[in-house]
Amino acid sequence: MLALAAPLYLGDIYLKSYVLPWLIWTAAALGLNLVTGWAGQLHLGYAAVMAVGAYSAVHAARFGIPWEIAFLIAGASAALIGSLFAFAALKVKGLYLALTTLAMQFVMDWILSHVPAVTGGSHGVLQAPQLRLLGQAVTSDAALYYVALGWCLLVTLFVINMRRTGLGRALIAVREKDYAAAILGVNSFAYKLVAFATSSFIAGVSGAVLVATFYYLATPEQFGVNISIQVLAMVIVGGLAHIIGTYLGVALILLAPVLLNGLVPSVLSLFDIAPSAEAMAHIPSATYGALIVIFLLVEPLGLGKIYNNIRDYFMVWPFNQVRK
């Protein structure tokens, strides 16, 4: 209910600049968590498949295809490319898989920078057409927010239900020990392919939603290797195979730097500390990095585990104190 009523109590700038991108990146991070957290496949080329979806949707919309179908085209094209990553996953594991997917990311970066027909070149800007759904133009900040919210909720519901199915259990079996899973009759190749394809579909649609509702254009810099690392950091900090943890991890990685840029100067001025301008430029980033390290030292399993610990504590409070 709070999410549905957010446009009523949040200002447009907070809704558009903070909450909307948080929802989109959460959906994208849940897709990566599907292949990394549940299937156990380290993926460093996630931004590449997001780029495939974003550019596919923009080109489709520019050709006059309705955005509803353009989003499906984005997911299908990203799933096709993402399935190629699965073939690499069959041959190598661990760090070798990470390097392989990273190499594919670099290949996609080169394509985005050197194929003008796709992107307009390294400095090209591909303008996204006006988002229209069911024949109606989506222009207001509240309407764009609801598009992002709807997509995020769809991905969340899918992942929640996926965990309870045979697919979810098979992915966990592949993650824990694929050879043992094969002995039990689990086809590791098929399930890795499904994991990469499904994750890439989510990434492709998320990339398209990001361009349609937040950036309004597509550029190569939006989907570089740094974005792949950033999304992986969201998943790890939030907690592998943890849904609420993913929401928290995205919030920390995406929103904490913005909050610290405003909070740190206020705290320093409160204690009458006046560092140099050069130091002031780096203190928020250092504080942000230290914050991530502290969270991971306190709980290596991520923010999702911290959330579970707090929830479990209050579920039995105050009776746990009586037992002591």
Intertermini distance: 38 Å
Large-scale geometry: globular
Helical coverage, percent range: over 70%
Oligomer: single chain
Give average pLDDT, whole number.
84
**What is the structural class?**
mainly alpha
Low-confidence residue ranges = none
Beta-strand level of the residues, as a percent range?
Answer: under 5%
Tell me about this structure.
With 324 residues, this protein is mainly alpha-helical. The chain folds into 2 domains: 6-224, no CATH class; 242-324, no CATH class. Helices cover 77% and strands 2% of the residues. It has a two-stranded antiparallel sheet with strand order 1-4. Strands 2-3 form a two-stranded antiparallel sheet. Helix 2 (12-38) runs antiparallel to helix 10 and helix 2 (12-38) packs across helix 11 (225-238). The longest helix is centred in the middle third of the chain and has 28 residues, at 188-215. The model has no long low-confidence stretch (mean pLDDT 84).
